[in-house]
Amino acid sequence: DQQVKQNSPSLSVQEGRISILNCDYTNSMFDYFLWYKKYPAEGPTFLISISSIKDKNEDGRFTVFLNKSAKHLSLHIVPSQPGDSAVYFCAASPEDDKIIFGKGTRLHILP
Amino acid sequence: DTGVSQDPRHKITKRGQNVTFRCDPISEHNRLYWYRQTLGQGPEFLTYFQNEAQLEKSRLLSDRFSAERPKGSFSTLEIQRTEQGDSAMYLCASSPHVGVWQFFGPGTRLTVL
Known about the structure:
The complex is a heterodimer.
Chain A: E1 4-5, E2 10-14, E3 19-25, E4 32-38, E5 45-51, E6 56-59, E7 62-67, E8 72-77, E9 86-93, E10 100-101, E11 105-110
Parallel strand pairs in A: 2-11
Antiparallel strand pairs in A: 1-3, 3-8, 4-5, 4-9, 6-7, 7-8, 9-10, 9-11
Chain B: E1 5-7, E2 10-13, E3 19-24, E4 31-37, E5 44-50, E6 53-57, E7 65-68, E8 75-79, E9 88-95, E10 103-104, E11 108-112
Parallel strand pairs in B: 2-11
Antiparallel strand pairs in B: 1-3, 3-8, 4-5, 4-9, 5-6, 7-8, 9-10, 9-11
C-alpha cells in the first residue's frame, strides 16, 4: 500500500506562472513532510520541508502547505523558471528518520 | 567534491552473478541510507546505518542482499545471485544526525540481463 501518493505523473506550466504540485498521504503518524527535486542522472536534492505541527513553510519561491485534516500537502513554485523543470518527489518521515517517497511528478516549464 | 559519491555509476551483469556497490557519504555524516528506485517509482527505503551499526532493514532487502559499513565511513551493498527484478537505481544518502534531511548520491544503475 502506498503511504504517499502523487496522482499527477506530469504537469506543464508556463514560465513565470505558478506551479502547484499535490500530494496525499495515508499515515497520520508522519512527523515531517518533504519535497525533493531530481534532475536526470543525479540523485534527489532536498528542497523544502514542513513539520506536522505547521500548516505553511516558505523558502524563497517555494512554499509548502499542509492540510492535516485532509492528509494533503502541496508545493507552490512562484514564479516558475526553466530550471524548475525536474521530477518532484513528495515524501514523509516518521520519527525514525527514514523517508517514504511518492512516485514523483515531472514538471515541465514551458517558455 | 564533498557530496555523497557512489561507485560504479552503471553496472551491467548477467543473471546469477554477484555485484557489489560502494557508497562514500559526506565526511562526518554518521547516518547512511540505501534506497532502491525502479522505473516510475520513487526511491524505496532498503536499510540504514548509524555509524557501523545497521539499525533497520526493509522487507525489500531479501536474503540475497547484504549491506555493511565496517568502519562507520563508506558502505557496501552486495547482491548475490542477481535476478532481472533487481534491475534498478540504487541510491545512497547520508545525514549528520536525526532531523537533518538526507543528501543523496547520484546512484548506481544496475541492469541484470
